[in-house]
Amino acid sequence: MPKGARTDAAAGVQEDVALTQGPRPRTVVVIGGGMAGLVAARTLLAQGLHVTLLERSGRFGGTVDGRMLGGFQLDSGAESFSTRSATVSALAAELGLGDRIVSPDATGAWVQLPGKDLQASAQPLPSSGVLGIPADPSAPAITAVIGRAGALRAALDRVLPVGSLATRKKVSLGELVRTRMGEEVLTRLVAPVAGGVFSADPDDLDVDSVAPGLRVTMGRLGSLGAAAGALREAAPAGAAVGGLVGGIAQLRDALVEQLQADGADLRTGEQVSSVARSASAWTVTTEHSGLTRRIAADGVLVATEGRAAVDLLAPAIPTLAAERPDPVPGVALVTLIVDVPELDARPRGTGVLVARGVEGVAAKALTHSTAKWAWLRDQAGPGSHVLRLSFGRVGDTPADVGLASDDDVLYQHALADASSLLGVPIGAADVLDWDVVRWAGALPHASVGHRERVARIRALVAEESRTLGITGGWLAGTGLVAVIDDARARAKALASALADAPLTGDPTD
To answer: What single-letter DSSP state applies at residue 61?
Structure first.
C-alpha cells in the first residue's frame, strides 16, 4: 500500500492522503504515462514537487516502445527524432545516452510515384527544403520528380504576389503548396512526405502547426521556395533526424529509471475515472484491480490522448466537451527480418515513401532499417536485413489494408510491397522472423484550425484552475520534439502556479 494510504475494506475504497506531520512537499498527480507524462513528471520533480504518475496500461512510454525480434533489439514505435531542435539530443545526454546518438545513412530515402512501371517511377527524394517543399524547383533532382512542366509551374512561386496566404487564418499545407507551386509539387513531393510523417493529407494539415514560421518567412522573403530554403539553412547542420544505438525505447527506459530513483510514485494499471476539485485541492479517483482509489493532490497534469483527456475533464469543464477531437487513425507496422543478399546494395537508400495512387502497393512507407542505421547493419551482418512497412493513414476506408487487417493479411502485403518497392523479390522462404505491431489512435495530426483549437482548450483549462494542466501530442503536435517541449512547458507552468498558491496542511482539507 502506498505510504500515507488508508483503506475502507468494507467500501473497497483506498484513499492516499498526504502526511500532515511537519512541512510537506506539494503534490501533483500526472495522468498518462506516455512520453509527455514521463517528461512532465521529471520536470515537476526537478521543481521540488512530489509526483504520482498514473498509467492505465501495463507499461510506460506510449508509442515509444521496443521488443526483441529475430535476436535484434528493435523499436516498436518511434525509431528516430528530429534534430532541427536540440530538445531530444539534450534529453538523451541528460539521461546518460548522449554517446549513443547517431545519424542515419546519408543516402536518404526515395519516393514511389504512380506509374505502370514501379521501378521507373521511383525517384530519390530531394533533401532540400522542408516537408518536401523544394527551395529551388528548377534543381535537377526536383525536376526528375515533378517533370519539366511541374518545374515551370513551380517557378511561378518566385513572381506571384504573396497576398493573404502569409497572414490569413486557417491555411492548410495543401492550399499553400498548391497555390504557390502547383499540383505536381504537392502530389509528387509534399503529399508522400506528409503521409509518411503525419499519416495525413496535406489539405487537412494546419501549415502553421506542421511547419512553424514557414508562412511568416514566406511573407518576409516573398516566395515559398525561399522560405523553405531559409528554414532548412537555419536548422542545425547534419541529418534532419537522429537515432540511438540500440533504439529510441532507451529514452523511455532511462526516464522511468530516473523517476523511480528520484522518488516518483509510478503506477501502471490505474484507470482514472474522475478528477474533482475542492476549494484548495484535487481528488483523483482511479480503479485498480477492483479497488477504487482516491488520491489527493495540490495539482493535476493530464497527459493522456485527446479524447480520453476531454472525457475526463468535461464533467468539471462542460464547455470542453465541444473540443473533443475526432478519432485519429491508427497504424500497423510489419517488421520483416530477411536473408536477401541483394539488399546489401541498398537499392532504395534508407527506404521509400509511397504517394497515393500507387497501384498494387498498400503500404504508405517502407524503412530499410539496416540501410538506415549503421549500428543495426553491423549487428545483422551481410545478407541479413530488417525492413519495416507501415500501413494506415487518414482517409483510409474499412476495405483498405491497415490497423484492422489480420496479421497474415498484413504479412502477405508486406512481402509483396517490399518486393515491389525495393525491386528485389522477397518470398516467405527468405523471412527469418516477422511481427505486427499495432498503434490504435496513435497518430494525432494538426488539422486546419489546430492552433486556434489548442488556444481555446488551454484557456478553458486555465479558467478552471491554474493548478490544472493539460499536455500531450494531440495538443503539442507530432514528434518527440513537440511532445517533450510542451510537456516541459506545461509542467513548469503548473509548478509556478503551485508555488504561488497557499499551502494547506493536507490537500484533502
So the answer is: B
Return the bridge partners of 72, or none.
69
Contacts of 434 (CB under 8 A, 6+ apart): 69, 334, 335, 336, 337, 411, 414
Determine the Cα–Cα distance for residues 352 and 109; give it in Å rounded to an integer: 6
The Cα 443–Cα 210 span in angstroms is 14
pTM: 0.90
The closest alpha carbon to 175, from 451, 447, 475, 474, belongs to: 447
Q: Which of 396, 337, 398, 338 is nearest to 364 (CA)?
A: 396
Burial of 222 (0-12, 13-18, 19+ CB in 10 A): middle
> Which grid cell is 166?
502569409
What three-state secondary structure class fits 430?
A: helix
State how far the alpha carbon of 397 is from the alpha carbons of 176, 365, 394, 403, in Å: 27, 18, 9, 11
Residue whose cell numbers read 479517483: 285
Picking from 295, 274, 276, 279, the residue whose alpha carbon sits closest to that of residue 509 is 279
Strand ranges, E, within 179-312: 241-244, 265-268, 271-277, 282-288, 291-297, 299-302
Concatenated DSSP letters for 153-182?
A: HHHGGGTS--GGGGT-SS-BHHHHHHHHH-
| β-bridge partners, 265 | 52
End-to-end Cα separation, the chain, in angstroms: 22
Of 166, 202, 162, whose CA–CA distance to 448 is shortest?
A: 202
Residue 55 and residue 44 in contact, taking contact as beta carbons nearer than 8 Å:
no
Nearest partner of 393 among 457, 328, 455, judged by Cα: 328
* Assigned C-alpha cell, 346: 541498398
52's enclosing H/E stretch is strand 50-55
Residue 401 C-alpha cell reads as 489494408
- The residues, ordered by sequence, that sit 6+ positions from 462 with a Cβ below 8 Å of its Cβ are none
Other C-beta atoms closer than 10 Å to the C-beta of 287 total: 14
Q: 169-185, pLDDT tens digit by residue?
A: 899 999 999 999 999 99
The whole-angstrom separation of Cα 52 and Cα 5 is 13
pLDDT tens profile 154-171 = 999 999 999 999 999 899
pLDDT per residue as tens digits for the range 347-392: 999 999 999 889 999 999 999 999 999 999 999 999 999 999 999 8
pLDDT of res. 1: 47
